[in-house]
Each structure stands twice: as structure tokens, then as C-alpha cells.
């Protein structure tokens, strides 16, 4: 495609500024911060090279001198948010530390609701993301498992958190867009479901819902999901 390099590039491998010439007017941190402000206010769809340039007060074409591609802009944004992870001295209890990581990641995604859309291994090796991964591996040092298994644990835990938060955010967004309350919506749907189960066509589902008749504690569901992931990595015997 015209205008695109045939060789892939990594923005972190490029110097932020040339060795000679005037100091750039904006740093990568400035650009990332502007893009994050836009995403927090308008969602990821509100982030464009034109809008980020306007937020900075420069021309769109000037911004391309700093960030060649929109994918590079996304990578700067993910790295900026990765810097918000709190990195602590590992406690020696790998499960407790990884649960702390998971809850912190969930809170971070709620602060930046656009983030789950950008959670990809493609953006996983920026400077702050590398520090985060190194921290996770330090927390997992007491786990008797090869590094490949520990990396798999981190990936699976992040996957569970990302999926869970994406569902939370989508549910909240849908509730805000409805002309009626969430309680009214739930009452109508529960009434319909009850009628379907009463037909006898779904005996196993009827038994499952009868067994779990109370309201679902989503915090407890989240905690169980995390525990089940970690249980899979507990040394056997």
C-alpha cells in the first residue's frame, strides 16, 4: 500500500529526537497524555491524529513527524497507562501478589474504559509494560514453574480481567442508553425466562436456576474466576 513501509517498525526503537537540530516541541509523554485525555473523555473512537494534534495545538501533519502511525499512538497510550501500575516489593506469597495485580488492573481499566479494546500482545513490550511484566515475574518467583508457565499465568490472568471488565463496561453502557431502569429491564427478562423454563423444555437450565435462585454476586464471581486460574498453576502433590 502506498505510503506504508514494507518493513515493520517499533516506535521504541526510534530515537525520540535526532542528535542534531532543535529540541522537539512535544515529547512522546506529551502526545500520549493528550491522547489519553481524549480517550478518557470521548472514548477510543474520539482519538484521531487530527484530534490529538488539536489537543496539543499543532498541525496534524506535524504530529506524524513524532508518531508515524495511529498504531504507534495506541502503543504510546497503552504504555502511559502501564505506568499507572503500582509496583511493590513482592510479599513472597505469589497468589496474594497476583490477586493484587489483578484487582489493580481491573481498577485501572475502569479508570480508562477504552483500555480493554487495546489489550493486545502487540502492545505488550513497551518500556512500562516491560517493567510491569518484570514485576509480575518477581511476584511469581516463589512459584515452582518455568518462566514460560509463569508468563502463561500472567497472560491468562490478564485475559480473565480484561474479559470481565469489558463485560462490566458494556453492561453499564447499555444500561445508560436505555429509556427505563436496569431493574425494569431485569424484571421483564426474568419474567420471560421464567415462562420459558416453566414449559419443561429446558429441565437442566430450570434446575440450575432453581439451585441459584438468589441474586448473583458479581464480585464473588470475579474472585472465583481469579482463584480458578491460579488454582490451575498450583504445584501438584
Tell me what you see in this structure.
The chain has helices spanning 28-42, 49-56, 60-64, 70-82, 94-111, 127-139, 147-177, 182-197, 203-211, 218-231. The protein is mostly helical. The protein folds into two domains: 11-82, Arc Repressor Mutant, subunit A, CATH 1.10.10; 94-231, Tetracycline Repressor, domain 2 (Orthogonal Bundle), CATH 1.10.357.
| Number of domain units | 2
Average pLDDT taken over every residue: 89
Q: Output the structural class.
A: mainly alpha
CATH topology of the largest domain: Tetracycline Repressor, domain 2
Largest sheet: none
Identify the quaternary structure here: single chain
Radius of gyration: 23 Å
User: How does the overall form come out from the CA principal axes?
Assistant: flat
Number of strands: 0
Number of discrete helical segments: 10
Poorly predicted tracts of residues: none
CATH superfamily of the largest domain: Tetracycline Repressor, domain 2
H-E order: HHHHHHHHHH
CATH class of the largest domain: Mainly Alpha
Proportion of beta-strand residues: under 5%
Q: Kindly, what is the distance between the CA atoms of the first and last residues, rounded to a whole number of angstroms?
A: 56 Å
Helix content: 55-70%
